Amino acid sequence: MADPKRVLLAKPRGYCAGVDRAVETVEQALELYGAPVYVRKEIVHNRHVVETLSSKGAVFVEENAEVPTGSVVVFSAHGVAPEVHDQAAERGLKAIDATCPLVTKVHQEARRFARDDYDILLIGHDGHEEVIGTSGEAPDHIQLVDGPDSVDKVTVRDPEKVVWLSQTTLSVDETLETVDRLKQRLPMLQSPPSDDICYATQNRQQVIKDIAADCDVVIVVGSRNSSNSVRLVEVAVQHGARAGHLVDFAHEIDDAWLEGASTVGVSSGASVPDNLVADVLAYLAERGFGEVEEVEPVVEKLTFALPRELVRDLKAAELAKAEAK
Ligand code: SF4
């Protein structure tokens, strides 16, 4: 008799508090100010989210220079360098900052250590928007360390005054390896005051670690430019899954991946709405993987309030409406 086919469905998966807030920010801004609302960079790294918001009137741009004077611009969840705020003010834009509060926390750490004249080693991926934004807080003090193999290139002014910080969406294990290598070179290296890799990244990786060894294949829903989604596939394979694949949509699944498989793991990155996971489950069910067991080692409850500048305008609009009655 053939092995029973099943799906191990990871939870937590999908939207984190920072993504939820960023998407809601654009939706509420569209409702309040009307289209178009400009969004600098992808609000979150997910194709479906960007396409859906575009269809509602959001216009995605690369730089403030593309936004007409006086328009509303939303900054993405990944954060921006201070100069981006300055440019927006110079152009007379109404800026709403949807930077995730956990990224803002890393920016604050960078400013504080720079003020105290530390050399800051920022562990992260070269070119990622979050890294560009954080580096912009203290360009003269920050140098990027892009994984364990970059450690040998690091040079510091005073080995007793060095701290490491990190991008929020890295692999926990690889970051620890990078820090170990850094500490071999710089024994006095200080750690950030609290974890920079955010709770959502850590939780999504943890549940993948828990299920990977039981899975013949792990399918992660997420976009290629989503750092935390890509990391989930890597973690799955490192922790025992025979194979791991990243897909934006269910139709990208190759049936060959399922050949001979009895257990398929499913998860999704922090910028992925759950309807895309539902599509994957439906696709798998059609191929015999109808039994779904959800594995939830950690329960997430965190939520973030909307950006202050948006909340203020929403309240003013409410008040005006009430007075007009
Ligand atoms: S992945 Fe983490 S840092 Fe990024 S938006 Fe979500 S909660 Fe914030």
TrEMBL record:
Pfam family, one: LYTB
UniProt keyword Hydrolase, yes or no: no
Binding-site positions, isopentenyl diphosphate: 45, 78, 128, 226-228, 271
A Gene Ontology biological process term: dimethylallyl diphosphate biosynthetic process
Cofactor binding: number and manner: Binds 1 [4Fe-4S] cluster per subunit.
GO MF annotation list: 4 iron, 4 sulfur cluster binding; 4-hydroxy-3-methylbut-2-enyl diphosphate reductase activity; metal ion binding
Uppermost EC category: oxidoreductase
Active site: 130
Entry EC number(s): 1.17.7.4
Binding site for dimethylallyl diphosphate: 45, 78, 128, 226-228, 271
Stretches of the chain forming a coiled coil according to its record: none
Cofactor(s) needed by this chain: [4Fe-4S] cluster
Domain of life: Bacteria
Binding site for [4Fe-4S] cluster: 16, 100, 198
Pathway(s) it belongs to: Isoprenoid biosynthesis; dimethylallyl diphosphate biosynthesis; dimethylallyl diphosphate from (2E)-4-hydroxy-3-methylbutenyl diphosphate: step 1/1; Isoprenoid biosynthesis; isopentenyl diphosphate biosynthesis via DXP pathway; isopentenyl diphosphate from 1-deoxy-D-xylulose 5-phosphate: step 6/6
Reaction(s) this enzyme catalyzes, per UniProt: dimethylallyl diphosphate + 2 oxidized [2Fe-2S]-[ferredoxin] + H2O = (2E)-4-hydroxy-3-methylbut-2-enyl diphosphate + 2 reduced [2Fe-2S]-[ferredoxin] + 2 H(+); isopentenyl diphosphate + 2 oxidized [2Fe-2S]-[ferredoxin] + H2O = (2E)-4-hydroxy-3-methylbut-2-enyl diphosphate + 2 reduced [2Fe-2S]-[ferredoxin] + 2 H(+)
Function summary: Catalyzes the conversion of 1-hydroxy-2-methyl-2-(E)-butenyl 4-diphosphate (HMBPP) into a mixture of isopentenyl diphosphate (IPP) and dimethylallyl diphosphate (DMAPP). Acts in the terminal step of the DOXP/MEP pathway for isoprenoid precursor biosynthesis.
Protein name: 4-hydroxy-3-methylbut-2-enyl diphosphate reductase
